[in-house]
Amino acid sequence: MSSSSTLTTGAPSPELDDPGQWLGSSPLLDLEDPRLRLRAQALTQLAAGPREKTLVVYGFVKRLPFAKPFKMRLYTAREVLDNARGDSADKATLLVALLRLAGVPARIRYLTLGGEIMRGLLAGMPEPTRPVVEVFRRGRWIGTDTYIFDAPYYAAALRRLQDNRWAAGYGIHVEGHALWDGANDAYGFGRGDADDTLVLADHGVFCDPLEFVSSPSYRASHNRLPRALQWNLFSPAMDRAIRDLRSSEDRP
């Protein structure tokens, strides 16, 4: 299930933007997994309503450390939960799975961003695709990518941007958001509006990362296996950069 549309999602189309279409399972989400179901129940059992459920699930996933592990396939939501860390695709998968288990319609919008957003993490970085998780709230879809970066990482990245006088790098923008309120759009990469020059392409909405990499939109610009190999070649350098960034906050 996918749809191509603009980042401004206030006017959903009847077929693909029906929130009831975004509550089901998939091979990556695996909503029948007992540990996932127990985790969603434990997180949301005291939540008073959909927004509160959304925020407690979001907070849980955001706190998982951002990392760039070496992997030859996409991880399931249960695997991300067991690993207790992950990259943007990992954390998006887990967030969507837990939201759907809590009864909150959720999906992923994939954007291609300018390579400068990853400055500092890897030299010569290709233009990354960013998973924005969207939930249906009060008749419209609202999105965020702020779940990707845990608070210690974000604080270190923002400090490094300010020290270097960079507008963008380490996955964030100085004008981006650190947190999400569950009621409005919030993007760590910047404003996210039609004038945001960092957004190079909007690939539409998908159930999970596997559906995206299997889509015509992805295959039109990437060969899936070489792309995965390319990112795995980058992962050790990115992981070192992430560890260095975190350790810089501990040094006087």
TrEMBL record:
InterPro entries: Papain-like_cys_pep_sf, Transglutaminase-like. Pfam families: Transglut_core. Residues 1-24 are annotated as: Disordered. It comes from the Bacteria. Residues 1-11 have a biased composition (Polar residues). SUPFAM superfamilies: Cysteine proteinases. Residues 40-145 form the Transglutaminase-like domain. Coiled coil: none annotated. This is Transglutaminase family protein.
